[in-house]
DNA sequence: CCGTATCCGAATCGATACTG
DNA sequence: CAGTATCGATTCGGATACGG
């Protein structure tokens, strides 16, 4: 009825990428697939437990794909699914804003 | 060495809008300024405590402005600062994704 | 109308140790 | 290499009551 009751689809998208780490993980996976320890190094300050949790979460939401190579030593690659790739405009907007208003140096409080 | 060490400015932007509610609040404030109880009605399921907290958080990050009218009954209006307005592309991207992949019906779990 | 204060259970998260 | 298990500290978050 009113102009007041608009839809709010931002909730869902933020629900998928809205944690503390998911945006960053997506940011890196947007470029190319990565292995577990690569992500550990790329995402500063994340613990194994957290990274595992975030990856599982993204996977269960159909955003990333987890490919296990049956070999020793174990090797697992994470990549974006088509759904995950569709989030690239969002990640790009996030990145563009960050560069413009924070600067290239990365996160500073 | 450095193909791996890219910058990641998504962290900062998500830090500002990444909570459960901030995206939705921003989404509505993008359109026009709102009063406290308007937001209460717009954001389904949020409590007074939470709304207050989120608004204070956004305010302290310079994203929204809180204008108090010194009158009875009290009247407070929240609006986007220039910095807040600069986040509109991000909110738009979030919204566009939501519409495309979830549908107009709003958030469905 | 627009908040703040307090209580209290639930969820989160870092650190650490262990496994195939 | 890529995780899982467990513990304890911190924070989150709803319900309720109160205040300007």
UniProtKB/TrEMBL annotation, chains A, B:
What residues does the HTH hxlR-type domain cover?
A: 8-106
**InterPro entries reported for this sequence:** ArsR-like_HTH, HTH_HxlR, WH-like_DNA-bd_sf, WH_DNA-bd_sf
Ordered alphabetically, the record's keywords are:
DNA-binding, Transcription, Transcription regulation
Domain of life (superkingdom):
Bacteria
According to UniProt, the name of this protein is Helix-turn-helix domain-containing protein
State the species of origin: Gilvimarinus gilvus
């Amino acid at each position: 009825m009113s102009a007041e009751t608009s839809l709010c689809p931002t909730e869902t998208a933020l629900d998928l990428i809205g944690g503390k780490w998911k945006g960053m993980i997506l940011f890196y996976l947007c470029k190319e697939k990565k292995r577990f320890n690569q992500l550990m190094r790329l995402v500063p300050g994340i613990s194994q437990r957290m990274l595992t949790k975030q990856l599982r979460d993204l996977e269960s939401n159909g955003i990333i794909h987890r490919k296990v190579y049956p070999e020793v030593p174990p090797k697992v690659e994470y990549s974006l699914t088509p759904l995950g790739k569709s989030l690239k405009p969002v990640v790009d907007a996030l990145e563009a804003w960050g560069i413009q208003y924070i600067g290239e140096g990365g996160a500073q409080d």
